[in-house]
Structures are given as C-alpha cells and as structure tokens.
Amino acid sequence: MSALDRAVASAVVRAGAPGRIRFTRRQLYYEVCRGLLPLHRLPRRFRFTLPAPVGYERFLAALDRHGPVPGLLDDPAARVAAPGDDVPDLYDYGLPRLLVCQDAAIAGMLLANELHMESACPVFAERDLPLDPRLTAALRRTGDATVFVLHDAGAAGYATVEAVREWAGELRVHPLGLRPVHAAALHLTAAARTAASPGMAAPAGLEPWEVRRLRAGHTVEVAAVNPARLLRTVHRLVRGQSRTRRRSARLRQLQAAGFMTWPAA
Q1: CA–CA dist 255, 247 (Å, integer)
Q2: CA distances (Å), origin 168, targets 15, 36, 80, 132, 146
Q3: pLDDT for 254
Q4: What are the angstrom distances between the C-alpha of 105 and each of 24, 26, 91, 194, 230?
Q5: What angle do CA 108, 109, 112 make, to 5 degrees?
Q6: Nearest to 180 by CA among 190, 170, 172, 171
Q7: Model pTM?
Q8: Which own/partner pairs from 53-59 qualify as long-range (CB within 8 Å, at least 24 positions apart)?
Q9: Is the CB of residue 190 less than 8 Å from the CB of residue 216?
Q10: How many angstroms from the chain centroid is the CA of residue 218?
Q11: Residue 230 has what DSSP assignment?
C-alpha cells in the first residue's frame, strides 16, 4: 500500500469522527492533505496556508482503489431547492435566520448532518437564488432576521456575499467567512490559484493583506475545514453562541443531557 493509500484510509476515519459525520469528496481530499502535511498543528500565531501535497486527480484515483467509503456524500447534481418548491407552513410564522452557502456540496453536507434542524436554520446554496418568495416574506415578518453567508476565502466567495445582498434587499446579511485570516490561522490547505482580480473592490472589514491575497487570486475553500470543526463553528455562529460566553447552570445541565448536541448519526 502506498503512502497516499494509507493517507486516504486514515482520512476516511478522521473525516467521519466523531459520531459518523457525513462529508464530501473535497472535504475528504483536504483531510488527506492534512494527514500528508500535518503543519496545521502549529500554533495559530504563525499565520500561513499550506500548498496541497497531492493533486486532486491522484487523490480520486486513490479513493477508487480504497473502495466504498461510509459517510461519503454524492456530488450534488441538482439544485437543493428552487423557486416554487413546497415550503412548510411553519414559515408563515416568521423565520429568524437562514444560511446560504457558496458551495452546493457544502450546503448538502450541512443538510445531511442535520445542521438545519440542530440550529433551526434553513440551508440553501447560492445557486438556489432567488429563493421562494414565501421564505423572504417569512424573514421580513420576523423583523430582525439575518441571512448568513458561508463562503470560500477567495474573490468568488466575496462575489457570493454580494449576490446574496442583492437578493436579500433590506434584510440583514452577515458573512460568516471563510476569511483569509481564518484560513491562515487554521493553516488550511489552499486551492489552486485563480486569475488575479486587481480591480476587485475591497470587502468591508478585511485587513489590507487579506485584500491583496484576494486580488492575487489566492483561494482557500470552506471544504478545507475539518468536517466536525465546520459543523461546530457554523452552529455556534448562526445561533450567536460566543465561545467565551458563560452558560447558565440550567443550560449546562441540558447540554449534558444531550440537548443542543450533535446527533450521533
């Protein structure tokens, strides 16, 4: 067995942990990269991203040799939802939050792991825009609803944010990231470099070095984040749960009893 084959076998175990998480091929690929080049363990104060130690096509060949992978999701071949699709009557009562993902595969992964149930937050992909008008009406009915955007750390990711803002109109839009600073702190593996966009407008709130990386065509995909970390982080962010916020004794008891924890399957 080659080093790459062993890395794939190990990555399959890690990608699904804990609790049999379901994951995409791109997420498994980046898990393989972490196994082959484990510099992500270095302290976060050293900010850098990593080159891919193996090409995607070589990974796919090794994945074929490995055989069936429990938890591996099929690539999305159709829209997650479309205007005119049936919308539950529950939305008639108002909707406090909604998540739009740049990557349809990531949207599918979050849905497969029931994030929309755990976080009480419907999940869609950018390609589903415009969403059913009843969803928009439900968001407006709440009064302070938020549309969250999960996007790659790249020029296309921030184009997704602008596309969501254009659709959302007066609704509040909150980008969750990935930002270049997040990717550098987590030492994520970078994707293939895209064409430079020197005229790209600087997104609000980014550091000058982040803007330079975006304009130079550097991209880090959300899929490069470990699946379990991604689920935890998105859940915390859409629910407004700060990592440093002190929880009440009652909430700690509920959490210990299984409330607000990820399902085992």
Answers
A1: 10
A2: 34, 41, 18, 12, 10
A3: 38
A4: 7, 9, 25, 20, 13
A5: 85
A6: 190
A7: 0.84
A8: 54/4, 54/7, 56/29, 58/4, 59/4, 59/8, 59/29, 59/32
A9: no
A10: 18
A11: H
> Could you give the dihedral angle defined by the CA atoms of residues 133, 236, 101 and 96, in that order, rounded to the nearest 10 degrees?
10
Find the angle CA(45)-CA(205)-CA(49) to the nearest 5 degrees: 35
Residue 76 or residue 34, greater confidence = 34
Q: Is the pLDDT of residue 236 over 90?
A: yes
Q: What does residue 189 show for φ and ψ, rounded to 5 degrees?
A: -80, 130
**What is the token pair recorded at 72?**
């591996």
For residue 37 the two structure tokens come to 């080049």
The token pair at 252 is: 């700690």
Categorize the per-residue pLDDT at 45 as very low, low, confident or very high, splitting at 50, 70 and 90. Answer: confident
Q: What is the predicted pLDDT for the residue at 115?
A: 93
Contact yes or no for 134/87 (Cβ under 8 A): yes
Distance, CA of 107 to chain centre = 7
